[in-house]
Amino acid sequence: MWLTDAQKIGVALTTFGALFMMLGVMLFFDGALLALGNILFVSGLTLIIGPQKTFYFFARKQKIRGTICFLGGILLVFLKWPFFGMIIETFGFLNLFGDFFPVVVTFLRQLPFIGTLLSLPYIRTVVDRIAGSRTSAV
Hints:
InterPro entries: Got1, Vesicle_transpt_Got1/SFT2. It comes from Marasmius oreades (fairy-ring Marasmius). It is a multi-pass membrane protein. The protein has 138 residues and is an all-alpha fold. It contains eight helices and no strands. The longest helix has 22 residues. It is globular, with a radius of gyration of 17 Å.
């Protein structure tokens, strides 16, 4: 899969956004880091899939609850309520991007070290539950 230069920049911005948000949570919900992480994440996502597809993704009728919670959480972070903003934003993020978890887990299971770690007995059941994987009773 070949990426354009804008998409490569978008991947970098999204990665830095996720890192800044993780760092902001680890530093006891530092509002500045969380706000910067949110800006980088949303702008990176826009560069990766394009402005029109980003708008259509967030404006779909099935995703409206997730969109409202995600954007409301970002707004709360900007208004200096980082703890409650991140809780609401996480709920919105899970509603918006929860469909991608099985794809991510399948990809991670194909990686050399991480795949064997995710295949360990107790970890496998937790990851399957998070990803929504179902096993057959037969």
